[in-house]
Amino acid sequence: MPTLTTIEALEALYGVPHERSVRKEITFVNEDYRAFIEHAPLVVLATSGPEGLDCSPRGDAPGFVRIVDERTLALPDRVGNNRIDSLRNIIVNPHVGLLFVVPGVGETLRVNGRGRISADAALLDSFAVDGKRPRTVLLVDIDAVYYHCSKALVRSKLWEPSHHVERSRLPTAGAIHRRLNGPSFDADAYDRDLAERVRTSLY
């Protein structure tokens, strides 16, 4: 199957971007873009390193990504599975991408920048929830900020309840682990206790 292999071939096929598509990209958080960050309970973090790519969802109460100043964001790293794939990548390659998602809103906000990982005690304390601090805080020095139009979310019907998928139509976490770990894995017990484990280990 033939593929495109040059920038020139791509540009010939797609043409020139509209002027508005170029002008919406700025190098700082302005008042309009601040609103997206402050209302987003979910951000997807993309990184790249020697072992490959990582794209990781991060979620918390709206505004959990702190706007330190117009060129700097701070993102707490809450309790997880300790794979730390994103953080490993950032150590060797600081370039990151962020996608901010606001429930019910079609537009998203994209931020490209360079990440730094901080374990400063005072900074960790400032992000504590119920007395529990994050392990680290990711500081992002902003290179570019721009909003993304709603077409992808409109096409996907992501926010339309009539298109929401019943959880029972997908394999459970226990079933996934049993397939990977063998028939001796107690999938029923894993699934039975999962909601409580999640509830007690959010922070």
UniProtKB/TrEMBL annotation:
* Pyridoxamine 5'-phosphate oxidase N-terminal domain span: 31-149
Q: Where is the signal peptide?
A: none
- Which Pfam families does the record cross-reference, listed alphabetically? PNPOx_N
Superkingdom of origin organism: Bacteria
Question: What NCBIfam families does the record tag this protein with?
Answer: PPOX_FMN_DR2398 (TIGR04025)
The protein in question is named Pyridoxamine 5'-phosphate oxidase N-terminal domain-containing protein
